[in-house]
Amino acid sequence: MRSTSADVIVLGGGLTGLSLAAALGSAGVEVAVLEQEDWQELLSAPYDGRVTAIARGPQLFLDAIGAWRDMAGAAEPIRDIVVHEAGSPVRVCYEGREIDGKPLGWIVENRAIRRALFERVTRLPTVRLQSRAQVLAIEREATAATVTLAGGERLRGALLAVCEGRLSATRERLGIPARRFPYRQTAIVCTLAHEKPHRGLAIERFFPDGPFALLPMQGHRSSIVWALEQQRAEAVCLLEDAAFLAEVAERFGDHLGEIALEGPRWHYPLVLVMAERYTDHRVVLVGDTARGIHPIAGQGWNLALRDVAALAETLVDRLRLGLDPGDPLALATYESWRRFDSLVLVAVTDGINRLFANEQWWLGLVRNFGLLVVEQLPPLKRLFMRHAMGLLGELPRTMRGEPL
Ligand SMILES: Cc1cc2nc3c(=O)[nH]c(=O)nc-3n(C[C@H](O)[C@H](O)[C@H](O)COP(=O)(O)OP(=O)(O)OC[C@H]3O[C@@H](n4cnc5c(N)ncnc54)[C@H](O)[C@@H]3O)c2cc1C
Known about the structure:
The mean pLDDT is 92. This protein is of the alpha+beta class. The two termini are 36 Å apart. It contains twelve helices and 19 strands. The chain has a domain at 3-73 and 107-180 and 272-356 and 394-400: FAD/NAD(P)-binding domain (3-Layer(bba) Sandwich), CATH 3.50.50.60. It is globular. Flavin-adenine dinucleotide binds at residues 11-17, 34-37, 50, 52-53, 133, 135, 163-165, 169-170, 187, 189, 225, 268, 287-288, 295, 298-302, 304.
């Protein structure tokens, strides 16, 4: 039976697991990433039709760990964002020039992010990637955790970082409770090709049956994220292309000229998941495993990257001092650093969805009054912008543009 060891064992090689491996590996930490799927499948074009809005702070982090240069060529800058409720003249316009004229964020296709992270980690000599890994058992002793894989291999590490997404089996296996709140909504995602340029404008429009976002992609293309009540989403997914495009045009008007579908329509059932704690003996939960939020504000992976950056800084600092990266002090530092930010984002995204997906007339007044106040108070608007850009709060140094 083969036995190996690493400083950190990362369970799950999704966007979060790969970025953690890239961060730790770029600082020379020994990392083993165990992914249940086949890499070639994960990297293939049909795997994920989504795009991700990457905010300024997380972009600085990706740059600091050497992953941004491989995805920069696929990134489209977001210059301005307009938020409003359908049928109301009140709107909030976030303009990049109100901050410093630089992009508010970037839109990158998930497949380009995944490939860039994958390529970054394969260049790092201290990172070992293993796909089709099936975990049979996890044992934890005083100073280490040992993972036994199907096939008999045993891997020992000072810390186990669980990055398995919302439905993490390891979180359950380790007895860390997580609360689930299904939104009874499904997000339909697809790419539109359009006649006119989008000029870097992202639009979030709220309808009583769910939010609809249009995100600028490279070329004359935009990605749609359209959340609808489950049954309605199923019906919309079954529409012929022409009828589907007519529904889209009805919601968005004709400012982009002629539109056409590029590729398939994808659908993602939405559920809020919150783990009761983010750490356990020799274990940390990272990204969607710690909490998976509504995509309404495009913040899920940005939040995950703040986990990754905080965790990487905590572990690297300890290792540089010759300290144990998985001891209770390291876990407590991570847990306390990440809990408040997480709770804020859970409350904000859940609250916005509840507030806007509601037809009570008086809530309409509250919504429009709120949007009006934000639009009329530039300092408040700038505060919201800086928060959405990931530039506020107790930021890890990599998110302030410093090296790890
Ligand atoms: C419609 C939609 C739009 C979104 N848009 C945005 C956006 O614009 N901006 C943003 O910041 N966020 C966005 N998000 C959120 C973002 O997609 C997630 O936060 C992100 O994908 C989470 O990545 P993850 O690696 O933590 O989890 P996952 O993507 O779920 O990856 C988990 C990985 O772990 C592997 N795995 C699972 N179990 C095991 C196991 N037992 N052993 C080994 N491997 C395992 C899986 O195969 C997978 O590769 C959006 C989400 C949705 C649904």
